[in-house]
# Entry
Amino acid sequence: MSEHFNVLEMARQQLSIASKYLDLDEGLHQVLARPKRQLSVNFPVVMDNGEVIVFEGFRVQHNTSRGPTKGGIRYHPDVDVDETTALAMWMTWKCAVVNIPYGGAKGSVKVDRKQLSRRELEKLTRRFATEINIVIGERGDIPAPDIGTDGQVMAWIMDTISMQAGHTTPGVVTGKPVDLGGSEGRVEATGRGVVVAAEEAAKQIGMNLNGARTVVQGFGNVGSVAARIMADQGAKVIGVSDARGAIYNPNGLPIEELYHKYSGRDGGIQEYKDCEIVSNEQLLELDCDVLLPCAISAQLVKENADKIKAKLIVEGANGPTTPDADQILNDRGVFLVPDILANAGGVIVSYFEWVQDLQNFFWEEDEVNTKLARIMRSAYSAVAQARERHKTDMRTAAMIIGVHRVAEATIKRGIFP
Ligand code: NAD
# Structure
């Protein structure tokens, strides 16, 4: 059984748990357990040395009951159709939990981006966009960046689809550069949303975030923004990491300096001197109040869940906690805000970007941030209430809300024909 098969199994198990709470009809459960559409493509790219390489890619649309589908495109050597399907399912619940009018989708190309020149990356992107053009579109399915893709890749996709349409269609992707119809505040949106979720959770459990000792795993888009805003609001960020390793100072780290002076260097944040170098494993087990896993999946696992000292965990990454670890942390009374709620800021502001593109009317950053925080707080409150009502944990409560909203939409629309 491959690891990716397990990811889809994990997503289906989570759905089964929520379905039991909701006493969902078995037929409806089966509708939600499967993707509506899976497109698999194999396409050639002429590399810089003249060699032709065939790449494999996917676009999976999980559910369209609540609106067009939305979800990132990932470029990574390990992707497959099952992992892409699981990620599309999570997008469906995430959009429903924060109550934005989308279903979930995900796209992927099996490629190591680091092995491509810029020209090859552009050619691969334009060809993949052309291959999936039959299922994406500004009214049907709107991609966004994910691991291995960025604003430039989105600009190439937008341009490719526009060339084929004969006119500019900015609404076909989100996460674009601001001068091409991107939204102010989109880059920071996920990290900003993580901090809003942390604030709400702290209120709920009676923790003061001012001075709270905080550890952030991952210093990329999500982690660096979350760390900077946490520090700005008075938290003491004592540990941060990237793929190369982690740094720790119990008196607090200068996050702005790390971001501006060190994160772009070849040696990264480890070149900062006034700290102790620790491993990523040690980082997660540091004595702290708040832990923000903002790197990759499966970081809090059966083997370390007993040793985590944080009282509050807010999941910036997708799937950082395995089900075994979830159980252990829950039994130990650690309060955890799950990914489908905590990191929804990105898709919320992607939604704002799409709305702005369709209207050709653009908002100020303050307006974006205010509306983002309002949606995050209202979603948090709904999940916290569901947790009370069903006497369960925050992850199950978020799943119950997400699945319930999608199921209701499916029932109200009816099964065609
Ligand atoms: P990113 O590539 O910008 O940053 C990832 C960070 O994690 C980097 O600092 C990297 O060095 C570090 N990292 C990688 N491997 C690691 C390892 N083995 N141990 C420790 N650190 C490691 O990516 P991102 O956009 O910040 O995304 C991070 C996570 O958040 C992913 O799980 C992603 O799916 C999720 N997410 C991102 C967004 C978004 O808007 N960017 C939205 C929702 C969820």
Q: What stands out?
A: Confidence is low (pLDDT under 50) at residues 1-5. The radius of gyration is 21 Å. The CA atoms of residues 287 and 309 lie 5 Å apart. The pocket of nicotinamide-adenine-dinucleotide is lined by residues 147, 190, 217-223, 241-243, 280, 294-296, 316-318, 343, 346 (CB under 6 Å).
